[in-house]
Specification:
Layout: H1 10-40, H2 45-56, E1 61-66, H3 73-80, E2 86-90, H4 96-111, H5 123-133, E3 139-144, H6 146-150, H7 156-165, E4 173-179, H8 182-190, E5 202-205, H9 211-214, H10 223-233, H11 237-241, H12 249-257, H13 267-275, H14 279-290, H15 296-303, H16 307-319, E6 323-327, E7 338-342, H17 345-362, H18 366-374, H19 378-399, E8 409-420, E9 426-439, E10 444-451, H20 459-469, E11 477-485, H21 491-494, E12 501-505, H22 506-510
Parallel strand pairs: 1-4, 1-5, 2-3, 3-4, 10-11, 11-12
Antiparallel strand pairs: 6-7, 8-9, 9-10
Length: 511
């Protein structure tokens, strides 16, 4: 009607049409966002079920959620508290008094919205106010990033314990304490020395998404691209959420890593700066681990630091979830067979490719660098990631007896073997087995080889796996030989009729 009115010029009509179109678009986007809130939340079914069980039980209760940064703790809590009466406070590094002030505001916003002239001088005063105003309603109290506040307020946890035991003991209050500082959460909140020990109903240590849940972020990708997506993000929720499922995996990698304004271009530095006061030595350690130097003495020698100094930083890197100790599966008590590896594959990808590309990225040519120097060897980078995926798959299937025995642990094995050289002389060489699954109940073992290459697995790879399976301790009988291949198998391998040989592809482990 408006556009048909007399006296309106053509230019004005076009402007009106433009604004009407924009309004329709905005309306559709808002509608989609509201309808898609629950759809956009991916995975975490077990954790949500645990929180629901916790919430459904009447009375006072406390649960603890912790895990490394970017893992999705706050997102999980936000999903869980939808349509529930909640006080949600996220602590910050602003000291005891400011956290008390900000927390008080959140409490007031729930019970007395719009009131500005009320203040509380102590945390006890706020807790008393909650007690007097919550009535018989079921209320959730969330304190996110708890360590930021508790580190500056020595009494906070003790006061919380007192109110759980006394003032709130007959209230329908559900307390969720959350934090990213793993060592603090484990030592100060969960340990026997904590004032809160014995008060929690449950605890959730949130881990990265496995490769199957990670694939849900990019449902229309091929399985190969889903695997690469998992590899470059390490299954970390925040990084996965940055992937645009409409764009190709190459476009996403370039946009996130190989542009100056890419979210992941500076992410490793940002993460380390948040966790460490002096990142120089830590950066050097991570760099060495990423390049394949995995033992304490090797790392210390490479960076010119004493072993105790390096060990201190390694322990901190482990505590924040960036590094893990890897042990030979059949010799887990052998300290000499311990390797330090990057737990976060995004870090591994970054350290392998970004430092060498920095100058090119800075002048805006990162995409060219990716196409010429990274994409051709992306499958090589994916080798260790694929091994990790295959170990997860083997454990998942082995637990339910897929391979004729009850698998209880999966890992890797490394050692030495004696071989003859071309002159007939015996020599030793280092060897490893990608996948070793053990059944302590049945005293059986499964061994596996993984190849994320565009080359088919052939007879030699099969025979090498059989040979190396004999190096495992004699108490384990190797009952299955499992091959995992991106590109498939040669006719010779395909024709094997041995029921103890299992041939799997990338598609197999995504089924």
């Amino acid at each position: 009607d408006v556009l048909g009115s007399r006296g309106l010029g053509d230019v004005y009509k076009r402007q009106m049409l433009y604004f009407i179109q924009i309004d329709f678009i905005k309306s559709d986007l808002n509608k989609s966002a509201s309808e898609g809130d629950s759809y956009m939340f991916i995975g975490r079914e077990r954790e949500l079920a645990s929180l629901k069980e916790f919430y459904d039980k009447d009375g006072i209760g406390m649960t603890v959620i912790y895990g490394r940064r970017r893992i999705g703790k706050s997102t999980l809590i936000a999903e869980f508290i939808k349509h529930k009466k909640t006080i949600f406070y996220t602590a910050t590094k602003v000291g005891k008094n400011r956290n008390l002030e900000l927390f008080s505001k959140q409490v007031l916003d729930l019970f007395m919205p719009g009131v500005e002239d009320v203040s509380f001088n102590t945390i006890e005063a706020v807790f008393d106010f909650i007690d007097k105003n919550m009535g018989n309603d079921k209320l959730i109290l969330v304190i996110d990033e708890l360590p930021y506040w508790a580190k500056k307020d020595d009494a906070l946890l003790s006061v919380l314990q007192k109110y759980i035991d006394t003032v709130w003991k007959n209230k329908n209050l559900k307390i969720i304490l959350c934090g990213s500082a793993l060592s603090f959460m484990e030592k100060k909140v969960l340990s026997e020395k904590s004032p809160l020990f014995g008060r929690r109903d449950s605890q959730i240590k949130l881990e990265v998404f496995d490769y199957l849940d990670a694939a849900k972020f990019v449902p229309n990708y091929s399985n190969e691209d889903k695997a690469i997506c998992y590899g470059i993000t390490g299954g970390v929720a925040k990084y996965l959420s940055m992937i645009d499922p409409i764009k190709s995996i190459d476009e996403n990698i370039v946009r996130l890593f190989f542009k100056k304004d890419g979210y992941l271009y500076d992410e490793t530095r940002n993460m380390l700066m948040q966790e460490f006061s002096d990142i120089t030595i830590v950066n050097n350690i991570v760099e060495q681990i990423a390049s394949g130097n995995n033992t304490l003495n090797t790392i210390a020698g490479k960076i010119g630091e004493k072993e105790p100094t390096v060990l201190y930083s390694l322990d901190k890197l482990i505590s924040v979830g960036l590094v893990e100790k890897k042990k030979c599966i059949t010799e887990e008590k052998n300290k000499k067979k311990t390797q330090y590896v990057l737990k976060d594959y995004m870090f591994k990808f970054w350290y392998e490719f970004i430092p060498k590309a920095t100058s090119v990225i800075e002048i805006g040519q990162g995409e060219i660098y990716y196409q010429k120097a990274v994409k051709p060897i992306l499958h090589s980078f994916m080798g260790t990631v694929f091994e990790d995926m295959c170990r997860y798959y083997t454990l998942k299937k082995g637990i339910i007896g897929e391979y004729g025995c009850f698998i209880t642990s999966v890992g890797t094995w490394w050692g030495v073997e004696n071989i003859k050289d071309k002159y007939g002389n015996m020599r030793t060489q280092s060897v490893d087995i990608d996948v070793v699954a053990l059944s302590e109940v049945d005293k059986k073992a499964l061994v596996g080889e993984c190849k994320f290459k565009n080359e088919k697995i052939d007879k030699s790879i099969y025979e090498t796996l059989v040979s190396r399976g004999k190096l495992l301790p004699a108490k384990y009988k190797v009952s299955k030989y499992i091959l995992f291949s991106l590109a498939g198998y040669t006719d010779w391998v395909e024709s094997l009729s041995d029921e103890d040989v299992v041939l799997l592809t990338l598609d197999s482990i995504y089924e």
